[in-house]
Amino acid sequence: MSGPVLFCYDGSEGSRAAMAAAAELVAHPAPAVVLTIWQPAAVLLARAGGFGGGYLSNEGKVDGEQAQFAGEAAEEGVERARNHGYDASSRVEEATEGAGRRIIEIADELDARLIVCGRRGLGAVASALLGSVSHVVLAHAGRPVLIAPER
User: Into how many domains does the chain fold?
Assistant: First the structure.
């Protein structure tokens, strides 16, 4: 595993704390990719049992806003990573089969040396309904994973 450190970043306090914890543990300078995952509204609604069906009438708009928010979060993460001494770039990805699975796929593609996640991100409701992204990554990644608490 000679690739970059992969930061799973959504702008939450948990993802910020995880990045700061990794900065104390990983030798610098190190290459890094700040990854922000977004999921289409239809995917989230389907996994939640289809509640809120009227929500889909604005699906394209909602998805566009989610993709834009993800891009902004990733750029914020790159700035933070650079402030911590990483040579960082951003990556935004859509996940249709779960954010944890998508993170693992990207980590494998990049041959990430380490996956860094916060314990709890912005999606508290989604986490309750769908399961913890960090738990999926920890359980299924075939590489080192750092999961840091929020504080």
Answer: 1
Beta bridge partners of 31: 87
The pair of structure tokens assigned to 138 is 């920890």
The Cα–Cα gap between 71 and 112 comes to 21
Cα-based distances in Å from 54 to 11, 45, 47, 63, 74: 28, 11, 16, 15, 30
Task: Show pLDDT as tens, one digit a residue, over the chain (151 residues).
Answer: 689 999 999 999 999 999 999 999 988 778 999 999 998 887 666 655 655 555 556 777 888 888 999 999 999 999 999 999 999 999 999 998 889 999 999 999 999 999 999 986 555 444 444 458 888 999 999 999 999 887 7
Give the separation between CA 95 and CA 132, rounded to whole angstroms. 15
User: Which domain covers residue 135, as residue numbers?
Assistant: 5-148
Q: What is the pTM of this model?
A: 0.84
Strands (E), 41-137: 86-94, 114-118
Q: What is the CATH number of the domain that holds 124?
A: 3.40.50.620
Token reading at 26: 């990983």
